[in-house]
């Protein structure tokens, strides 16, 4: 019996080196990359612009961790032991105290491109497809590092700012491979041979930034964008920063408290939350906002665990406003959606909005078909027409006559708006005339029943033309042949 379990190990450094004058740098590994993108079969699933904000927001809200190795000496096999008091989060940044050293960082792909993030619920297998992960190095390294203490060359000398450069030597992508057994291989080969399209649903993040706010106003209404109903957001996370980008002494992964009084999301005429917030961070009145933050992990990952990196006290200095609109009104599907955010605050701030989009209704189709013609064969196209009332009555009558004729003549068809039975064509007017005769006298049945007397149709070659056959059935009841009447009466009324 194999019982899997998790084991934690705690290691303690007995003492620090005394008298050291080196600076302490906080390195943000993901900030060294610019606009990463992930492409599968020429379909781009993700492209991030501000990666340091995107990764920080994703990790803070979803409690993800990284694996780390320094100088190839230490490779942790389990999760890292985080220290929240020193702001050492699992957002791909760490501290080191030596210069001119190389370091290794292992970052999960789903925190960079947010594709196929649910490992516990695999929904598809991608085989024989082209995978392309594009990583572009940032032009500047200012957002990568943060100087916490200036270096002093000599006692009493003015403080100087060190100049450092970060060089990316190599990037390796490790992808797990699955080897199925023979039974599953046969099933996969059957599907590949059938050339069926593959539908892969996924979630995508979009980051929107408001460049400037209205000066001297405490109320800001921001029209984020207008999108279709399928592209409307399921979650919206709002956070604020003040002059932290492109600064050596500011950490771009930490948010600011802008003393927000109330914040609401508007999707057309629906507001989230429905009631206005009454927040006061100075008096510690922000329990509702922190509750929404802790509920995000539970709702987004569909789990029962409520974990958060930021506790209630730390949330006061770096809040995030999580708005859950995943259970919105279904009427939004039939129109476009205008996304607006209204915030009431104090002071000059620069808000940045990270919009989480979950494509539950809109799915990406990775088509492995060899040609477009093979896909057209699989489409079932139904054409609908709006007929006038007269045409509808005519078609209904013809279909009824066809149904009656098929009881004795299975090969009967409707061709060119005429009923064809055994190479004999009957128009709509002829059928209506015979239907009137049948209603006036029960001795004259409908045309398909008259055709059930094959002995009257001589099979001799020269005489049996279509006109002569019709002429035989155009006789009035008064002059009709007695033998023919007797034969026609032998058919039951149910056949008519």
TrEMBL record:
Signal peptide: none
Every Double jelly roll-like domain range: 2-146, 153-348
Taxonomic superkingdom: Eukaryota
Location of the region described as Disordered in the Swiss-Prot/TrEMBL record: 456-475
A Pfam family recorded for this sequence: DJR-like_dom
Compositionally skewed regions (Polar residues) per UniProt: 457-466
Listed InterPro entries: DJR-like_dom
Name of the featured protein: Double jelly roll-like domain-containing protein
Organism of this sequence: Phaedon cochleariae
């Amino acid at each position: 019996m194999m019982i899997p379990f998790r084991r934690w190990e705690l290691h303690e450094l007995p003492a620090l080196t005394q008298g050291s004058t080196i600076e302490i740098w906080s390195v943000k590994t993901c900030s060294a990359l610019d606009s990463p993108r992930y492409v599968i079969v020429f379909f781009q699933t993700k492209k991030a612009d501000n990666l340091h904000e995107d990764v920080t927001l994703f990790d803070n809200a979803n409690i993800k961790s990284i694996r780390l190795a320094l100088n190839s000496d230490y490779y942790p096999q389990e999760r890292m032991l985080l220290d929240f008091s020193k702001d050492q989060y699992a957002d791909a940044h760490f501290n080191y105290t030596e210069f001119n050293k190389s370091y290794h960082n292992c970052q999960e792909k789903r925190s960079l491109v947010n594709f196929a993030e649910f490992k516990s619920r695999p929904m598809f297998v991608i085989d024989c497809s082209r995978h392309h992960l594009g990583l572009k190095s940032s032009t500047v390294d200012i957002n990568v590092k943060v100087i916490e203490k200036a270096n002093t060359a000599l006692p009493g000398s003015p403080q100087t700012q060190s100049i450092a450069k970060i060089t990316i030597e190599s990037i390796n992508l490790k992808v797990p491979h699955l080897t199925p057994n023979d039974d599953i291989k046969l099933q996969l080969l059957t599907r590949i041979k059938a050339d069926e399209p593959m539908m892969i649903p996924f979630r995508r993040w979009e980051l929107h930034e408001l460049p400037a706010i209205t000066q001297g106003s405490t109320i800001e209404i921001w029209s984020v964008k207008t999108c279709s109903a399928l592209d409307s957001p399921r979650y919206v996370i709002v956070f604020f920063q003040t002059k932290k980008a492109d600064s050596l002494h500011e950490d771009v992964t930490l948010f600011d408290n802008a003393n927000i009084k109330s914040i609401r999301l508007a999707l057309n005429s629906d507001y989230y939350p429905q009631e206005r917030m009454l927040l006061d961070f100075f008096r510690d009145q922000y329990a509702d906002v922190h509750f929404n933050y802790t509920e995000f992990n539970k709702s987004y990952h569909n789990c029962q665990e409520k974990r958060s990196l930021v506790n209630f006290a730390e949330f006061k200095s770096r809040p995030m406003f999580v708005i859950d609109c995943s259970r919105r009104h279904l009427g939004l599907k039939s129109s476009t959606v205008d996304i607006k955010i209204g915030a009431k605050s104090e002071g000059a701030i620069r808000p940045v909005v990270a919009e989480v989009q979950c494509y539950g209704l809109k799915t990406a189709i990775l088509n492995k078909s060899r040609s477009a013609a093979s896909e057209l064969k699989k489409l079932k196209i139904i054409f609908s027409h709006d007929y006038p009332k007269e045409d509808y009555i005519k078609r209904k009558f013809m279909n009824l006559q066809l149904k009656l004729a098929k009881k004795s003549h299975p090969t009967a068809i409707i061709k060119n708006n005429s009923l064809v039975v055994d190479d004999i064509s009957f128009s709509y007017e002829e059928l209506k005339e015979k239907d009137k005769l049948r209603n006036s006298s029960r001795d004259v049945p409908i045309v398909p029943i008259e055709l059930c007397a094959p002995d009257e149709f001589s099979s001799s070659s020269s005489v049996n033309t279509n006109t002569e056959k019709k002429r035989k059935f155009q006789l009035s009841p008064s002059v009709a042949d007695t033998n023919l009447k007797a034969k026609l009466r032998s058919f039951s009324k149910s056949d008519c």
